[in-house]
Amino acid sequence: MIDILVRLMFIAALTELGLSLTQVEQCHSRDCMQLIEKKSRDILNIDWKPLSVFPEEAKRFK
């Protein structure tokens, strides 16, 4: 059961990257590995914006 869960998690992660399982299995070149790394960095890059809890304080720092 855990094996199936891990496989489903792996397939879901590949789907987030826009890749299929066959593309990863056939990926043996350096260019292909760099493509996977670039896509994963694009997914993991979060554009953080500050959250203002106290609007008066936020106005003071602008």
Description:
This protein has helices spanning 2-17, 21-25, 30-44, 55-61. With 62 residues, the protein is mainly alpha-helical. It is elongated, with a radius of gyration of 19 Å. The N and C termini lie far apart (53 Å).
Overall SS class: mainly alpha
Helix content: 55-70%
Radius of gyration: 19 Å
Q: What overall geometry do the principal axes of the alpha carbons give? A: elongated
Can you summarize this structure?
About 70% of the residues lie in helices and about 0% in strands. With about 60 residues, it is mostly helical.
Task: Give the topology.
Elements: H1 2-17, H2 21-25, H3 30-44, H4 55-61
Features:
single chain, 62 residues, mainly alpha, 4 helices, elongated
